[in-house]
TrEMBL record:
Provenance organism: Sorghum bicolor (Sorghum)
Name of the protein described by the UniProt record: WAT1-related protein
Record-annotated EamA domain positions: 9-149, 186-324
Sequence similarity: Belongs to the drug/metabolite transporter (DMT) superfamily. Plant drug/metabolite exporter (P-DME) (TC 2.A.7.4) family.
Bias type Basic and acidic residues, positions: 332-344
UniProt superkingdom: Eukaryota
Membrane topology, as annotated: Multi-pass membrane protein
Signal peptide: none
Location in or out of the cell: Membrane
Length: 353
């Protein structure tokens, strides 16, 4: 029984990465089938709000009164950055690139978060230490990975399955045409920008949770605010309401999946996993999503994966692990220094006695 308990976090981490791989594939399939990306985000946030709002009302109704106007304004702003702007930009960039690139770029998140924390002086780099060199090397590898994804296609790898479950136009995979190539480059850098705004949201969110540690109300309030914001964006982007109509196709499946499974199930599993093993453990499992997405996008979408996408993804993964190694090494060094200080204090107290 103990052995099974010890394996649980690893199993949960694999399930989380499978859920995210599924999100990239079904979202890309929905966009290739013609749903407006801005309308999609509105429906996704509305589905998430419908799932979480009743739960919050039942469990947290007594705590709602403790939310001040200043806190609500902060949550509105954070929802705008982390959900509305970031997700809309991310989905536009995925429409212009591929599910594989979207998954590969997610490995840059811890590196971008580290860079933002460095700019905000929440992190420090000791250039003469191995941990500091590892962190900087991670940033360099991450940048190299982004440029490879954007500018190098390389030879195409054959799809795993030519009889696709979600039929999409082959034109979406043709990135060798000059105009398509420019769209691919713009999409890659838009994806990086989306990750920057998401990383900024993570940094701001961690500070907010220290001030107001109710995760449920913070999440639900941002979902509701983002639903309203996304509706305004979608109305401006798509004024033909006949195109808002949902049908029983891949678009509806993608909305239900991203709204309920990703927002509901995976967020809960992530919180459980981080509580058990910490955030670094979950970040270490990110590359699994990249591997799953390569296979699933090729199998279900018939997506033509290029060597450049795999090489770029590999550089991003290397950058991720380099930064995480530097962080863990730094933590071990600081803990060792604290123990030495405590030992020195105890020694001096004994001498004084």
């Amino acid at each position: 029984m103990l052995g099974m308990e010890a394996k649980k976090p690893y199993l949960i981490a694999i399930i989380i990465q499978l859920i995210y791989a599924g999100m990239f594939v079904v979202s890309k399939a929905a966009f290739d089938h013609g749903i407006n990306t801005f309308v999609f985000i509105f429906y996704r946030m509305a589905a998430a709000s419908l799932l979480l709002l009743p739960v919050a009302i039942i469990l947290q109704r007594k705590n709602v009164r403790s939310m001040s106007l200043v806190l609500l304004l902060k949550l509105f702003f954070y929802a705008l950055i982390g959900n509305t702007f970031s997700l809309n930009l991310y989905n536009v960039s995925m429409k212009w690139t591929s599910a594989t690139v979207a998954s590969a770029s997610s490995n840059s998140m811890p590196v971008i978060t580290f860079c933002l924390a460095l700019l905000l002086r929440m992190e420090a780099v000791k250039l003469r230490s191995r941990s500091g060199v590892a962190k900087l090397a991670g940033v360099a590898l991450c940048l190299a990975g982004v440029f490879v994804l954007a500018f190098y296609a390389g030879p195409a790898l054959s799809p795993v399955n030519r009889h696709r479950a979600f039929a999409v136009a082959q034109a979406s995979n043709n990135n060798h045409h000059p105009s398509s190539r420019m769209t691919w480059v713009k999409g890659t850098f838009f994806m990086v920008l989306a990750n920057v705004t998401w990383a900024l949201w993570i940094v701001l969110q961690s500070a907010l949770l220290k001030e107001y540690p109710n995760k449920m109300l913070v999440t639900v309030t941002q979902c509701v605010f983002s639903t309203m914001q996304s509706f305004v964006v979608a109305v401006v982007a798509e004024r033909d309401f006949s195109k808002w109509k949902l049908r029983f196709d891949i678009s509806l499946l993608a909305i239900i999946y991203t709204g309920f499974v990703v927002t509901g199930v995976s967020y809960y599993l992530q919180a459980w996993c981080m509580e058990m093993k910490g955030p670094v453990f979950l970040a270490m499992s990110n590359p699994l999503c990249f591997i799953f997405t390569i296979f699933c996008s090729s199998f279900f979408l018939g997506e033509i994966v290029h060597l450049g996408s795999i090489l770029g993804g590999a550089l991003l993964v290397a950058g991720l692990y380099s930064v995480l190694w530097g962080k863990s090494k730094e933590t071990m060094e600081s803990e060792g220094t604290e123990e030495q200080k405590d030992a020195a204090k105890a020694s001096s107290m004994l001498e004084q006695a």
